[in-house]
Design goal:
Oligomer: single chain
Helix content: 25-40%
Radius of gyration: 31 Å
Distance between the termini: 80 Å
Structural class: alpha+beta
Number of helices: 19
Number of strands: 26
Largest sheet: 12 strands, mixed
Strand content: 25-35%
Shape: elongated
Length: 704
Amino acid sequence: MLDTGMEFGPWLARQLKQSGMSQADLAQRVGMTRAAVSAWITGRATPREETIHKIAGALGTDLGTIHTRTADTLAGLPISWYHRPGHADGGREFGNAAAFAFEADVGVLAREATQNSLDERLDLAQPVRVRYTLHELTGEALAQFRDEIRWDDLLPHYEAAAEQDQKVGRMIAAGLSDMYARDRLVLLRIDDYNASGLTGDDYETGRFAAVVRRQLDSQKSVSGAGGSYGLGKATLWATSRLGLVLMNSTLSEPHEGRTERRLVGRLDLPWRKVDGKPWAGPAWFGRPDPDAEDVNVARSWWADEESVERLHLTRESAEPGTSFLIVGAHDVAGLVEDTDADVEDDDSVHRMHHRLEEALGRNFWAAMTGGGKQRPLLEASVRTFRNGVEIIPDTRVDPRETQPSRTRALQAFLDGTTVDRMTEAGQVAMATVPLMVPGPGGRGNGVEHRAVVLVTEASDGKEGKPNRVTTMRGNRMTVKVGWVPGLPVGTNPFQAVLLAGRSAGDDAPFADEAEEFLRAAEPPEHDKWGQTEELRLLYSPSAYRRIGALTNLTNKAVRDLVALPKKSRKGGSERLRKRLTVGGRKPARPKTSAGPPTLEELDARIDDSGAWCVTAELKIPTGGDSWRPVPVAKLDVRSGTRPTLDWSELVAVHNCEIVDGAVHLAPGSRTATFRGTTDVSTHPVRAQFSGLVVELRTDKGAQA
C-alpha cells in the first residue's frame, strides 16, 4: 500500500531495470560486492544508512524517495510516446472500428462510461461515485498542458493524420484547427470511486490490458454487468477530437506492490507516414519497458503527485477507481439542439455540462434510487472549470428531480409500499408478469422468471411523454422507453417501469437466468431487447419471441392497472336515453387548410413468420381529418435509398377506415390508430437483422 511503499528489494530491482543498470554496476558505484546487492534485492539483507546515501547518488534520487518507495526515481527511462510501427505486410487501419459503433455524443459517453463504472462497483453495500469534470484550457494553461503531454513529439503524427482524406483524418484536422484558431482545449475527466480500478498486468489478461491494450475485450467482474461487447470504452476515444485519453488508476489489488497513481495514455490515430516511416495507428504514453523486445514499447508508470497534478489527473482520495481524461472533448449531438438563453455558444462547456446532467438523469435515475434496506447503486455529479476556476459548481444529479414519477414507483417497490390498484394520488400499483427463459441451446423447457411491473401517475417534469414503460434489468440502467398501445380513451397519464432479472428483487424466481438471457438480447448500444447473434448462439433462433411475449404481457398488465372502474349510470333507462336528443342544429365545421396528420406513436414487433407487426397512432390537427394518408413501410439502412416493403395486412383500429391502402379519418377525430403487417416475401433481409421506418405519404393529391 502507499503508506508503506514497496519492499526495498523489489523496489530496487525495479529501479535498476528501468535505468538499465545491472547489479554489478550498482555494486561498483556504491563500493560493495555484487553478492551484497543481490542480498538486498532478494530481501536477505538491507543496506546501512551510509550505503543508502550512496545508492541514492547512484540512482540520481533523494533519500526521501528511497525511504518511502512510493514512486520511481527520476533516473529511470523518461516518460515518452511509443507509436506502433506499420505492419510488415503493408496492412493499414484508418481508425479504430469500435469507435464508429457510437456517435461522438457526451450523452452516449455518459451512458457507456457510467455503465462501466457500475459494472466495476467494488463494495456492493455502497454506491459507486462517478463525477464528470469539464475543464476548458486557454492561453498559458493550455501551453503548460501541451508541454506536459509532449505535444511537440505528437504534432508530426497529428499533422500526417490530418492530411488524409478520410473520416478520422478530417476529425483530427478539425480538432487541431479548433485548438489553434480559438486557443482552446476542452478536457473531460470521468472519475469513479468504489470501483475496481485498472488492475492486472500491462499485457496479460486483466482490466488494465482490456481497456488500454485490447479491443472487443469485456473483462466484467459480475455476470449481471451492463456491458458484454467490450465496445463501450471506445466512446472515450470517440469523444476526443484528438483521439487521446489519459488514465490515472487507484487499484483495488496491488500491482508491483503499489495501488496509487498508475498512469498511462493511449492515442488512437489512423495509419500514417512520418518522416517516411509508416506507423500503424495507436500509440501509448508511458515509460519504456526494458523487458519488451522493442525497447521503445511504453508501459504504465507510477507517477508522483506533482506529475499527476500537471496532467489534470489528481484524484480526491485513495479510494479505488479510475480517472479517464478525454483530451479535446467535443459533442456532435449537442450542436443540433436549440441553444438555451444562458448558454454561451453551441460548442460551449456550459452546453456539455447540461447535456451530461440530462443523460445521467435519463439513463441512471433507477441506479441512483434507494429504498428499504437498499442504498442507491450510483451517485453521479457534474462540474465545470475554466483554467482552474470553477464556473459551474459540482451538481449532484437527483433522480427525484429528473424522473419524479419513475423514481416514486421504484422507491415504493424497494420500500414495500406498493398496492394492487391505485385509488389515491401518489400510489404505486404493482403486478408481475412471466418471462419464459429458454434453456441454453434451446434444450429443455426452460424456467419461468417473474418480472415486476410498476405503475404510478405521471408528474409534470422532465420525464417526457406520459403513458410509457421504462424497462431495465440488474444494473438498473434504462434499456428502453416504450409506448403502451391500446389504452382506452380517458386513461389518466401514467409512467410504468418493468423490472426484470436481478432488478426484480432478491426473491424473484430465476433472476440470474433471466439476467443472462436479457443481457444476451441487448445490442452494443444496450437500448433494447431483441434478436442478436449472441442470443441465437446461446439459446435458439426463436428465443427472441420470448421477449415479444414479455412485452405484450407487460403492456396488458399496465392496461389492467390503469383501467378506470366502470361507473354506474343514474337516471332513466338506456332505452329512454337513446330517444332523447339535444335540440338545435350542429354548427358547420369551418373549412381550414389544416396540415396533414403526423405519426405520434409507433409500436412494432416481429411475429413468428418474421414479419413486422406495427401499431401506429396518428395525431390529427384541427380540420385535418380530410387528409388520406398512405402508410409506407421501409427498411432502415445506414446509407442509400430505403427499400420499400409491401403490407400483407393493413387494418383500422380506432377513428379510421382503410380504403385502398389509404387511411380515411373519422370526421372530427383528433387521433386515429391502425395496424399493419409487412409482407415477408418483399423483405430483402430478415426482419431480425434490420430496422423499420414507417412514413406517411400525405401529398396534396391524396387529400379528399
